[in-house]
Design goal:
The protein has 292 residues and is of the alpha/beta class. The chain has two domains: 148 residues, Rossmann fold (3-Layer(aba) Sandwich); 130 residues, Rossmann fold, CATH 3.40.50.1400. It is built from seven helices and ten strands. A five-stranded mixed sheet has the order 2-1-3-5-4, sandwiched between helices. GO terms for molecular function: lyase activity; metal ion binding.
Length: 292
């Protein structure tokens, strides 16, 4: 039986670059030869969520949401637009972080759809956060002497979003690799505006847990942290702020290793993609540092 992967994301009418990471990760997975077909679908762009299954000839489809947390889009919008027969969020049996996979039939196409949890809550996302630190510092061994901040929207916006931030911050902390690890928020305490108040380390890597770079990651956060007075003027990496060096990495979703998380979600749902996972990990690894 032929199998397809569909990566679904929000997209944007206002920021054409928001869909770029989704296309990039789809290309990476396509090159790895994991599926007969790899497609993308969007809420705000074409092909739409409502039509994306029709772009697949395969009888069996693995759908992976390119979203950070469980919530309105993953629990209501996507299942509705895909027309998953009998969809019930309780089938995920999730605590807000543990959505895995639920299998349905698409009402209009008859395809078997394995609907996976969002990429942002998968444990392998922690590896991508760390990889983001390696990329921004150009140091595959970064950690000693460095603080690490994971940044999210805030608890008022989406309780599950905050859960994802705390979950990955704790997992990074448990590695013991960085001197200090802190979860920070745009709208709640502890706030990213005060990033230097939460670290003694002179060097701090800051990684937003966002799928793509946009208004928040390119404008709000750099200005809030004092990297620049005006995002249009750009900022240094690292940037000197209150006696610290801030290594601002931008959205985690732009890191090429994100393709691995998509494949991990599909693997957890039963797709035979282990060889592709190894291939993606190898092709997206950070090059050795200049001193190696």
């Amino acid at each position: 039986m032929s199998q397809a992967l569909v990566i679904v994301a929000h997209g944007s009418h206002l920021n054409p670059g928001s869909s770029a990471p989704t296309y990039d990760h789809a290309d990476t997975i396509r090159a790895a030869g994991a599926f007969d077909e790899v497609r993308t679908g969007f809420w705000k762009e074409e092909p739409s969520l409502r039509e994306v299954l029709r772009t697949c000839e395969a009888d069996e489809v693995y759908v992976v949401p390119m979203f950070i947390s469980e919530g309105y889009f993953t629990e209501q919008v996507i299942p509705r637009e895909l027309r998953l027969d009998g969809w019930d969020v309780a089938d995920w049996d999730s605590d807000g972080l543990s959505a895995d996979v639920a299998t349905y039939t698409a009402e209009d196409t008859g395809q078997t759809v394995h609907y996976c949890g969002p990429v942002g809550t998968h444990e392998s996302m922690t590896d991508v956060l760390v990889r983001r630190a390696e990329s921004v510092t150009n140091d595959p061994d970064v950690g000693e002497g460095f603080g690490f901040a994971v940044v999210g929207h805030g608890t008022e916006r989406n309780e599950n979003s905050a859960k994802a931030i705390e979950y990955h911050a704790e997992r990074v902390r448990d590695t013991g690799r960085f001197e200090e690890v802190q979860a920070l928020y745009m709208d709640e305490e502890p706030e990213v505006d005060d990033v230097t108040d939460y670290f003694e380390s002179e060097d701090v890597v800051v990684v937003p847990l966002f799928v793509s770079d946009g208004f928040h990651t390119q404008e709000d956060i750099p200005e809030d942290m004092g990297l620049t007075d005006d995002y249009r003027d750009g900022y240094d990496v690292p940037a000197a702020v209150d006696g610290h060096r801030i290594w601002y990495a931008g959205a985690v979703g732009t890191e090429s290793l994100m393709a691995d998380v998509v494949l991990e979600r599909a693997a957890d749902a039963g797709a035979d993609v282990r060889a592709a996972i190894e291939s993606v990990r190898e092709t997206t690894r950070v090059a050795p540092g200049a001193d190696d």
